[in-house]
Specification:
347 residues, Spore Coat Polysaccharide Biosynthesis Protein SpsA, Chain A, 2 domains, 13 helices
Length: 347
Amino acid sequence: MKYKLSIIIPFFFKGSADINSKRYFSLLAFEKCLKAVFRSKYKNFEVIAVSDGSSTESMETVKKYPCKIIKIKKNSGAAFSKNIGAKKSKGEILVFLDSDVEVKPDAFEVINNHFNKKINYGMLQGIYSHEPNYESYANEYLQSYYSYYIFTEVKKNKFIQSLVTNIFAIKKKIFNINKGFDSNFSGAGLEDNEFGFRLQKQGYKIPIGRKLKTIHHVNFGIWEFVKKITKIQTGEMKMHLRNKDTFVLKSKQSNYWGVISGLLLISSIICLFGLNIFLKIPFYNYIMLTLNLLFILIHLRFLKFIFISKGFLPTLRAVFFTYLHRLVVANCAIFGLIDFYIFKNKY
């Protein structure tokens, strides 16, 4: 059976008088996304491009292709855009696709074949390819992190625990029954995670399609990396505070306690360093050495994964970014608590 697929691509690019190199890269990524979609071998699909208050340049890009274009005047967030796209869709299968990823020509064929299986669970999660090399060291690390912790770490498992809408297919009926994405989320990055937890709470399993690979076209530096992680992790902390069930589901992830151990160690290292400025702690150097060795040891499998796939220098850089990443996340836990309980910002 050839299912009708509704490919939903929300996009948001800020307008500006001039297009700098970063914005130019983002628009090129969007162009690659659309071009790859229409190169598909599988032809029974519609494309719904949802402009979330996006710029004129991005609208000119999308108009080059035979898409159904939905314009939202005010930037309302990825969740709202995805839900609007789903409402306007005519396909039996919804395929949510990020505007900065490039699919392979057989991607939609892989999706159709999956839903033709007797047991298909009503959905399919695609993965990021770990093959591309990135000029930005921050991108290089973060893509390795996603590829390892979200996809490769659970390689022996058939199902994923953290939903990512780089490419995600779901039966429209299941999507509607579960009321879609939570439109209270602003921006993008957590609405898919929360929806995944909600699906799992209802008893659904989210199978991983390892043949369904996307290339992620991103380009940001260290400061953008810090801001991105801060926004996502602060939001995730508040998500767990709003709904304790999401924390329970998160704790069941195979890599979760390794991450928690890393956060506890980096917090101990920073606290010990600060205390030693005012109080001379006995055996300070030995304690610091031990804590740092434990930190490296906890992340050794991740670093080995990068070494085997990317080589020595990316592994060395990953050590620095792992420290930075854990430090930012540890701070986000505090920011999230303050923002939630003191400033009453629930999202």
